[in-house]
Design goal:
Chain C: Keywords: Antiport, Cell membrane, Ion transport, Membrane, Transmembrane, Transmembrane helix, Transport. The complex is a heterotrimer of chains A (157), B (130) and C (90). Chain B is an all-alpha fold and 130 residues long. Chain B contains 4 helices and 1 strand. In chain B, helix 1 runs antiparallel to helix 2 and helix 2 packs antiparallel against helix 3. Chain C contains 3 helices and no strands. The chains are: A mainly alpha (157), B mainly alpha (130), C mainly alpha (90).
Chain lengths: 157, 130, 90
């Protein structure tokens, strides 16, 4: 987080020094300061690991947008066709995420993909209860949830 | 070319919203309706906003469009979670085709406490007890 | 071509609004109606966006931001209200 903060500060500094406040210049400043932070992180402990995190985040965003479209089309197909192919159900999913912010992000991103809706977290914060729309193969559903959670934690940790 | 992009984004966004409305009308119970409505509706709004930003091709429009998309992405799952949870907890009936419900047994309607024990997943523990 | 696209988009969104309104009137339980209201608000955000690009008025996007914000607050408020009521059958 502190790495991102410095990245933004350096980008604003670039814009101020070059003197033209346009969006394209801001993006250029952002790219340059990203490389500056990437070079500096070996010597400053607080910045460590920042440059690896950005590509991971981009990979996660691409993965998530793809997932969003696939799941949406799947739900849409079931809505259009007159026969119901869905097998809805509520499952308890064992969370790997521990802290509040991790659980919040995992639950929200699970809610955002169609076909799964997070209902509640148990009081001891170990199990997330999820309403899923397609439960024909429960093992496969758990596998895809686990994949999503692993990728989120990869970005956060 | 730009016109084509705008048309594609606007039409796909409108199509997703149409599907969301069709889903909310056709699907049988509350949670499945929410699957259709909140997410497809949000995706439709985001796609339309992308089309709008491309159409204006201005940094001011980009800032506003990005703000709307970010805001929808942040708030939709929270609202869906709140309504879905409230609906489930006050006992809105589920569809007959629902094949499994692991939450109902673990939830205490009076004290609002939710256990995490899972009988289905750990059959060994239950069987050991007489 | 663009005029045709805009009328098509408007027609689809209007039809979507109509169907969501049917669910709003019919909805067997209160949460169903709240979900329909939420969908209506996000369709309205879409309509405002399309209208902004149709007329070329940039400041309409501010209205879209406000509508999205109010819809979120309303949804959270309704959820609290429903949950306070406790178990019931309507």
């Amino acid at each position: 987080m502190i790495g991102f903060f410095w990245n933004v500060v350096l980008a604003l500094l670039w814009v101020a020094l070059t003197g033209s406040f346009s969006g394209g210049n801001l993006v250029a400043g952002f790219v340059f300061s990203y490389f500056a932070v990437a070079v500096m992180q070996r010597h400053v402990p607080a910045l460590r690991g920042y440059s690896q995190r950005v590509p991971r985040f981009i990979r996660f965003a691409v993965f998530f947008i793809k997932e969003l479209f696939v799941a949406n089309v799947r739900v849409a197909y079931d809505v259009i066709t007159p026969v119901w192919y869905m097998k809805p159900g509520v499952i308890g999913y064992e969370l790997e995420a521990k802290t509040d912010i991790e659980i919040t992000l995992v639950a929200n991103l699970i809610s955002l993909t169609p076909g799964t809706l997070s209902l509640d977290v148990s009081d001891d914060r170990r199990v997330l209860y999820i309403h899923a729309m397609f439960m024909a193969d429960e093992a496969e559903l758990r596998e895809s949830l686990h994949e999503l959670e692993r990728r989120i934690l990869e970005v956060l940790r | 070319m730009i016109d084509l992009f705008i048309a594609v984004f606007l039409l796909s966004g409108a199509a997703f919203m149409f599907l969301a409305a069709l889903g909310i009308l056709r699907l049988p119970d509350l949670p499945t309706r929410m699957h259709s409505s909140t997410k497809a509706g949000a995706l439709g709004a985001m796609l339309i906003m992308v089309g709008v930003v491309i159409g204006f091709a201005e940094w001011l429009a980009f800032a506003r469009g990005a703000a709307i998309v970010l805001f929808i992405m942040l708030t939709t799952p929270i609202a869906a979670h709140a309504i879905g949870r409230a609906g489930y907890m006050v006992g809105v009936p589920l569809w007959d085709g629902t094949i499994k419900d692991e939450l109902r047994d673990n939830y205490d309607l009076q004290s609002h406490s939710l256990q995490s024990e899972r009988r289905e997943q750990e059959p060994g523990k239950d069987r050991e007890e007489p | 071509m663009n005029g045709f696209v805009f009328s098509l988009v408007y027609a689809m969104l209007a039809l979507a609004l109509f169907m969501a309104t049917i669910r709003l009137c019919k909805g067997p339980s209160l949460p169903d109606r709240v979900v329909a209201l939420e969908l209506i608000s996000s369709i309205v955000v879409g309509v405002i966006g399309v209208h902004a690009i149709d007329t070329g008025v940039l400041s309409l996007l501010d209205v879209a931001i406000v509508v999205a914000l109010i819809a979120f607050l309303a949804a959270i408020g309704f959820a609290r209200f429903i949950e306070r009521g406790g178990p019931r059958s309507d």
